[in-house]
Amino acid sequence: MAQSTSRHGAPLGSRLRSARKVKGWSQQDLANRAGTTQAVIQKIENGKSLRPRNIEAIADALDVEAAWLMFGTGESAPMSKEAIEVARVWSELSESDRKAVRETILRLAKRN
What we know:
This protein is mainly alpha-helical. It contains seven helices and no strands.
């Protein structure tokens, strides 16, 4: 059975796996948090379950939007540990330092 893909080409299983790995969780960890079984998580990640009944609970456990998880629309996966660390430090910067960092990031992004 082919996996359902979003308009960006990533299938449900890939989005689920990616979001789970960002959290650093095993399939069993996610299953425990979502109130399901490891076998259900495995089936979704392997493309064997394209319309899981418990997608809302799984999305809630992962802190992502169910629409993103199912269809690749809406809010994306949770931030990586590195992005969270940068965001935490960002909040401690003065407004002038934030402006300088923002300008540097935008300049670097234009180079790439």
